[in-house]
Write a structure and sequence with these properties.
5 helices, Glyas_Bleomycin-R_OHBP_Dase, eight-stranded mixed sheet, 312 residues, oxidoreductase, 34% strand, 2,3-Dihydroxybiphenyl 1,2-Dioxygenase, domain 1, alpha+beta, Ring-cleaving dioxygenase
Length: 312
């Protein structure tokens, strides 16, 4: 039996000023800041995590905010669009909310679903789609209440420099099922009730350039540490050049760049975000991995001050 990921674990992107990032994803979209920490490979930069009330896999979008950094270009070799699932019947609320904050949007239809498309302040392409699947997000922030709150990811759209090879990786390495074709896109499904839909663009365009407003990588779910090691072997046996296991404190991670140049990560569901602070206090304080704790005073002095604030 082939291995099958249950879906998206998280998506990580590069953005600009961290306060602008927080104001949009918490203040406008109503997501919870579940963790503020630093980039483990570049501790002078924040790593901010947003998700549902419990910070569950499939709801987490993470950011490396680089104030005053150069703008990237969305294109081949990247996740092109990140799509969020909202409760059925809540689209009018979200359209009105986007209008309230003067956020330009367009309406479209894809694979029989109505989507609303817009960009965040730093250029990331986002969508909202109503989905019945997925548990209610019991987080309330500002005027965003659980009856309309974003549940988590609906999925993502991949732009590949070699779409046929990326298709092969999605099916034969990650275990996704081909679901439907529409125009230039093939839709694939995983088994989870959130983060389970991948649309792959089957024609190429301009090659992406990493920078502000682009997705750095997409991470897929592994059940636990044992399953994670099995994924590492499985990917290697299928021709992927996989990294060693990296301890990211809230999950273990391995990485490989698939043939279409998109950076894939496979991340463990546990231990999650409440193991170094309570679920009630997640995201309120800067949390550092053990290797950087000795530099806390210096980091707290150098990092840009941030706050989570209601914009309503």
């Amino acid at each position: 039996m082939k291995k099958q990921t249950t879906g998206i674990h998280h998506i990580t992107a590069i953005v600009g000023h961290p306060q602008e990032n927080i104001d949009f994803y918490a203040g406008v979209l109503g997501l919870r800041l579940v963790k503020q920490t630093v980039n483990f490979d570049d501790p002078g930069t924040y790593h901010l995590y947003f998700g549902d009330a419990g910070g569950h896999p499939g709801t987490i979008i993470t950011f490396f905010p680089w104030a005053n950094a150069y703008q990237g270009r969305i294109g081949d070799g990247q996740v092109g669009v990140t799509t969020y699932a909202i409760p059925e019947g809540s689209m009018d609320y979200w359209v009105n909310r986007l209008e309230k904050f003067d956020i330009a949007f367009t309406k479209a239809e894809r694979f029989g679903e109505n989507v609303v498309q817009f960009d965040d302040p730093h250029g990331l392409h986002l969508e909202l789609v109503e989905r019945a699947e997925g548990p209610t997000n019991h987080w309330t922030f500002g005027d965003v209440t659980p009856d309309v709150a974003i549940k988590g990811f609906a999925g993502a759209t991949l732009y590949s420099s070699k779409p046929e090879q990326t298709k092969n990786t999605l099916v034969n390495v990650m275990g996704l099922e081909e679901f439907a074709t529409e125009g230039d896109y093939i839709r694939f499904k995983a088994s989870a009730d959130i983060g389970n839909t991948i649309d792959l663009k089957m024609v190429t365009g301009t090659r992406g350039a990493m920078g502000v407003g682009t997705v750095h990588h997409i991470a897929w779910r592994a059940n636990d540490d044992q399953d994670h090691l099995e994924w590492q072997r499985h990917a290697q046996e299928n021709g992927q050049h996989v990294t060693e296991v990296k301890d990211r404190n809230y999950f273990n991670a391995i990485y490989f760049r698939e043939s279409g140049e998109i950076l894939f990560e496979i991340a463990t569901d546990p231990p999650g975000f409440a193991h170094d602070e309570s679920e009630e206090t997640m995201g309120k304080a800067l949390k550092l991995p053990a290797q950087y704790e000795q530099f806390r005073e210096k980091l707290e002095h150098s990092l840009i001050p941030i706050e989570v604030r209601s914009l309503d």
